Prior knowledge:
Layout: E1 2-5, E2 12-14, E3 21-23, E4 33-40, E5 45-50, E6 55-62, E7 64-67, E8 74-76, E9 80-84, E10 89-93, E11 98-105, E12 116-118
Antiparallel strand pairs: 1-9, 1-12, 2-3, 4-11, 5-10, 6-9, 6-11, 7-8, 7-10
InterPro entries: RmlC-like_jellyroll, RmlC_Cupin_sf
Protein name: Cupin
Amino acid sequence: MKLYRFSKDHGKKVSKFNSDFIMSRVIQTEKSAHVGCMYLEENGVIGFHQAVVPQLLLILNGEGYVRGDKEEYIKVQPGDAVFWEKDEWHETKTDTGLTAIVIESEELSPSSFMSLEKG
């Protein structure tokens, strides 16, 4: 398991075409990818299982805890991105609720765009 950041303070200001916003790049893939949004309510859990393909979990709001194959949980909050390799055991849980985007693809390389925080 690796932890990255995609929060506003990790982005770059874009002014091209008279634009005024900050972009935090997350991923680029040439192979097909599945993108979904997960809504975990209070005491929600994505049970302990193996990743079928490499998986990137982007925490949008709320907070929770993630773990890999060890029973050591790491707190996650908005702006955190958690990456698990194919076949890696993992779990996500929350006491108060969280919303996250999940990206799954045979070809994910988050370190190409985001800096590694922990993991």
